[in-house]
TrEMBL record:
Stretches that traverse the bilayer: 390-412, 424-442, 454-474, 494-516, 528-554, 560-581, 619-638, 755-776, 788-808
Phylogenetic lineage: Bacteria, Pseudomonadati, Spirochaetota, Spirochaetia, Spirochaetales
Gene3D superfamilies, alphabetized: 1.10.287.1770, 2.30.30.90, P-loop containing nucleotide triphosphate hydrolases
Name of the protein: Ferrous iron transport protein B
Pfam families, per the entry: FeoA (PF04023), FeoB_C (PF07664), FeoB_Cyto (PF17910), FeoB_N (PF02421), Gate (PF07670)
Organism: Spirochaeta isovalerica
Length: 813
């Protein structure tokens, strides 16, 4: 008897009989393997009761019960669901032998593959240090390029975004597909996870349909052998119609052989026989009609593979629809499509796109049966054992929060030692330069402006490195997807998607990539709201402010807890804001949750360090450019114009001190230093920065701030690191011992209390992000009204919450 998948319990196995979802939800479920005749087992339920995880085609797939309810299943396999594999589901196309008459010694190679297939590791292994990061034209999807020099050739490598299919579902899939079709690389390498051929070959079937020059790298071959899986490489090569190379990026196995095959394909030494899938008879008949019609359009036939174009039309691919709609033959094309839909609805009660997907999976099952020998007894793997603990119904959430807490303890406590070393180094440099230079404009600019400003930011590089390292390790191990799974029900209750949590976690590193990561959310309302609340996640640039204030106002034993509390407050405000926004301004259905839980992997040290180094390099580069310029500007604004009246007054004060015969030399020196401090404070108040700060003071005084903090916060709109460099400049003072640390000056400044420190940390946490993040937000949202709403909302929330924190702290502390 049929029943919805959502009604199954843990441990129950079943076979899919039909998928009743609509539109893109149906497309995603089909692409992930949930089609008629496919078996699976329910293996776990999230700590909050939703989503669920099923084991299907050798991998773990998470989906909400809402989506699971649209999938009908049978717990007993019926005869009409057996034997969906067919003897022959492919046909060789004419063998292509390319004799390229060219002197070009460059080969353009595109790497394509499923997420977690080891594609990027293979790219890193081949390209080494010869790589750069950019964006694909017109979109914010990251573009990784590299090259390798091999046998007189320069082989250019493009690491295309990981994708499960070439359907126009997400920006990553569109980018990958468009690159292959429009850029026409010389060779496409399909990177296949050898431990899970059945899932990975679905993308391979679509590459076969494009009829491009492709090589297939069965990756992680060391893991394949370790698990006792046997793969018949010659036979699978015959089925796919092109050469197959066994590789392991982590062990550097098969790299030279893969490059040899790339060169041989490019030079035409390898005959590339491109096999084409054979679909059901009715599908093939309709495809032939479409191809004959499309052939009459010279523009389409010169740019696209017509077989692929016809398949995509029957799959209801919206981007292909939009392309063909512009042509004069569209009316006749649409007639054939509607005719096909009508035929299938009347005969088998299924849409053509479902039948096409089923035929692909039938080919894959047949290929697996011919080429793969699994071990007699499949053992429970390490991923299953770990997930039994970290996704446990009781332990899952405490473990998640425990991991977050450990990250912040690690960032603060371990980072404190190198931070102190760097602080001492910059203080030594400032003191040394100060003794070498004569007093005046140049000395003040270099010591108080440049060294104090830039050095005050660079001392926090160790903490930034540790935070980026922690986030990169969570991503590399596969835990980040588990975090989304654990919190999805809570996110869904406030109207968002579990995947929204991934940009939020990314926001702990930097708001800019976090906002860009929101592009993976298909639903526009989800995307805009997630972008809005991502600004409340405390980026690494805010970390120096917290460390400065926590170090000045709290004992070391409480430092990690305070830091953890600040970050969790950002998460809480973000979630509450999302709930309000989805109820008031962005009412829409949330995107379905259908996501793979990848196996845990041992992080690749070189890849993780390269990623962390790249992000830290951006931070240091910002210190050497934006922050350097801002430090000089802030120094100029805090030192000019100079009041002659103030200067003359304090000159007379110093003269009086020197001429006073009642004071000893030590007392005179102390009084002179005090007079110099008072003069510096008076001159700063008279300066441009002081005047601007005075304008902001009425707005920020209720939350415990004075005009000096107002200057720092305003400067922080350019880049949050500038807050610390501005404070360094403002509070930069000299005494007989040399330059004091900023933490000491901040703590002893008149009127600055623990309440002020907490209020300032909260305001820095919640107020508008830096200009770079605002620019990216505007680009991603595409509307000024959203950008202005974000700015106004974050500023309002920051003021209100800081006011509450300040007033409550005054009451209880």
């Amino acid at each position: 008897m049929e029943q919805p998948l959502s009604q199954l319990n843990i441990g129950q196995s079943a076979v899919v009989t039909s998928v009743n979802a609509k539109g893109e939800v149906k497309r995603r479920l089909l692409d992930m393997g949930l089609c008629r005749g496919v078996g699976f087992t329910v293996i776990r339920i999230a700590p909050l009761g939703d989503p669920i995880v099923i084991k299907i085609k050798g991998f773990d797939l998470s989906l909400r019960k809402e989506e699971a309810a649209s999938i009908l299943v049978e717990t007993e396999i019926k005869d009409n669901l057996k034997g969906l594999e067919r003897e022959k589901l492919y046909s060789p196309v004419d063998t292509l032998h390319k004799n390229r008459q060219t002197d070009r010694k460059e080969i353009n190679v595109a790497l394509l593959g499923n997420p977690n297939s080891g594609k990027t590791s293979l790219f890193n292994c081949l390209a080494g240090a010869h790589q750069k990061v950019g964006n694909f034209s017109g979109v914010t999807v990251e573009k990784y390029e590299g090259f390798v020099k091999y046998k007189d050739y320069k082989i250019n490598l493009i690491d295309l975004p990981g994708t499960y299919s070439l359907t126009a579902y997400s920006p990553e899939e569109v980018v990958a597909r468009n690159y292959i079709i429009e850029e026409q690389p010389d060779v496409v390498i399909d990177v296949i996870d050898g431990t899970n051929l059945e899932r990975n070959l679905y993308l391979t079937t679509q590459i076969m349909e494009l009829e491009v020059d492709a090589l297939y790298a069965i990756n992680m071959i060391d893991e394949v052998e370790k698990q006792g899986i046997e793969i018949d490489i010659p036979q699978i090569q015959k089925l796919l119609g092109s050469h197959v190379v066994a590789t392991s990026a982590s062990k550097h196995i098969g790299m030279d052989l893969l490059l040899d095959h790339v060169i041989r394909v490019y030079e035409g030494d390898i005959n590339v026989s491109k096999n084409k899938l054979i679909y059901s008879l009715r599908i093939e008949e309709q495809l032939e009609k479409l191809k004959n019609l499309l052939q009459s359009d010279s523009w389409l036939s010169s740019r696209y593979n017509l077989h692929w174009l016809a398949v995509k039309l029957l799959e209801n691919d919206q981007l292909v629809y939009e392309t063909v709609k512009q042509r004069s033959i569209w009316i006749r094309v649409e007639r054939i499509i509607n005719e096909t839909i009508d035929i299938f609805e009347k005969s088998i009660h299924r849409d053509p796109d479902v039948v096409i997907t089923e035929d692909r999976h039938a080919f894959i099952r047949g290929a697996i049966r011919e080429t793969v020998q699994m071990p007699n007894k499949v053992k429970k793997n390490l991923t299953d054992y770990i997930d039994d603990i970290v996704l446990n119904r009781i332990l899952g959430l405490p473990i998640f929060f425990g991991i977050m807490w450990l990250i912040f303890q690690f960032t603060f406590t371990v980072g404190q030692y190198p931070m102190d070393w760097l602080d001492s180094i910059f203080a030594f440099i400032a003191e040394g330069v100060g003794t070498l230079l004569p007093g005046g404009f140049l000395k003040s600019l270099i010591v108080d402006g440049i060294i104090s400003g830039v050095g005050g930011v660079l001392v926090f590089v160790p903490n930034i490195l540790l935070l980026f390292l922690s986030i990169s390790l969570l991503e590399a191990t596969g835990y980040m997807a588990r975090a989304a799974f654990v919190v999805d029900k809570a996110m869904h209750r406030i109207g968002l998607h579990g995947k929204s949590f991934i940009p939020l976690i990314t926001g702990f590193g930097c708001t800019v990539p976090a906002i860009m990561a929101c592009r993976t959310l298909k639903n526009k309302a989800d995307r805009i709201v997630t972008m809005m609340i991502t600004t409340f996640m405390s980026c690494g640039a805010r970390l120096p402010v917290y460390i400065l204030l926590i170090g000045a106002f709290f004992p070391p034993s409480q430092a990690g807890n305070v830091l953890f509390g600040i970050y969790m407050l950002g998460v809480l405000i973000a979630l509450l804001s999302a709930f309000v926004m989805k109820k008031v301004a962005f009412r829409d259905e949330s995107e379905p949750f259908v996501m793979e839980l990848p196996p845990y992997r041992k992080p690749n040290a070189s890849s993780v360090l390269r990623q962390v180094g790249f992000k830290a390099g951006m931070y240091v580069k910002k210190a050497g450019t934006i922050i350097l310029g801002a430090s000089i500007l802030i120094w100029l604004m805090t030192n000019y114009p100079v009041s002659r009246d103030i200067a003359e007054h304090y000159e007379s004060v110093r003269t009086e001190i020197e001429s006073d015969t009642t004071m000893g030399s030590a007392e005179k020196r102390e009084m002179t230093v005090l007079a110099e401090r008072e003069e510096a404070a008076a001159q700063m108040e008279y300066s441009l920065a002081g005047r601007f700060g005075k304008l902001t003071e009425p707005l920020i005084k209720p939350i415990g701030f004075d005009w000096k903090i107002g200057i720092s916060l305003t400067a922080g709109l350019a880049a949050k690191e500038i807050i610390v460099s501005t404070m360094n400049t403002i509070y930069s003072v000299q005494d007989g011992e040399g330059t004091k640390s900023l933490a000491s000056d901040f703590k002893t400044a008149t009127g600055y209390t623990t309440a002020t420190a907490l209020s300032l940390m909260v305001f820095v946490l919640l107020y508008a992000p830096c200009m770079a993040a605002i620019a990216v937000f505007h680009k991603e949202s595409g509307r000024w009204k959203y950008t202005l709403l974000m700015f106004a909302y974050t500023m309002s929330v920051a003021w209100f919450v800081s006011f509450l924190v300040y007033r409550l702290t005054l009451l209880f502390i």
